[in-house]
Amino acid sequence: PLDIAYLRAQGIGRYAQGLLGPLAAQARQRGGELVALRARDRGHGPFGLDAPAGPHERTLRRPPVPGRLADLPEHLLLPIDLRRARANLVHSLSIYRAAVAPGVPSVVTVHDVAPLMWPEHYLRSGLVHRLQYAAARRADLVLAVSDAAAADVSSRLGIPRERIVTTPLAADASFVPTK
User: What is the pLDDT of residue 68?
Assistant: First the structure.
């Protein structure tokens, strides 16, 4: 989500940016390292939340493909990148660019299943969405951003509720009350 232009400037991009510092700190505290796999042409986040003690970054090499097909190479290339990084776990911060078979235990955050609820507005090509949702179905753990999203994920994707954990979103520490 940090490197996908239309997501980077939305809530999913803010969510991803806000997790970099805290996840990197947790990894260090546990004797590990957070590695963020980033696109070569990454652009800058519009929120100015670049985490100082953030993760180690690895630049991914991807073939040039039209934006609507950009998820497809991930199913082949992400498992290779994860092996090279010696990853123990992959957390896809959204269904976008999540691999169906990443080769390591996986956690996928599903923000909503709106395309399945209103397909006439979203599903011009069902193949990409089917692969994205297959990645969520095969994940070892699914994070949903609300109880309502968790219920939708369970009912629409057929994922048992015990494999879904609700992790509500919160405002970044940089937001403070004004007078």
Answer: 73
| C-alpha triplet 11, 17, 23: angle, nearest 5° | 125
- Token pair of 56 as six digits: 């180690």
In the numeric block, which tokens belong to residue 41?
A: 């042409």
Question: What region does 43 belong to: left with phi over 0, alpha with psi -120 to 50, or beta?
Answer: left
> Given the structure tokens 């994205």, which residue do they identify?
132
**pLDDT at 47 exceeding the cut of 60:** no
- The rounded percent of the chain whose pLDDT value lies above 90 is 35
CA distance 126 to 119: 9
pLDDT at 44: 59
Q: What is the largest CA-CA distance in the chain?
A: 52
**pLDDT band at 49, cuts 50/70/90?**
very low
Contacts of 110 (CB under 8 A, 6+ apart): 94, 95, 136, 142, 143, 144, 145, 149, 153, 157
What is the structure's pLDDT at 136? 94
3-state DSSP call for residue 153?
Answer: helix
Q: Collapse the DSSP code of 166 into the 3-class scheme (helix H, G, I; strand E, B; otherwise coil) and give the result.
A: strand
Q: What is the dihedral of CA 56, 94, 136, 109, to 10 degrees?
A: 80
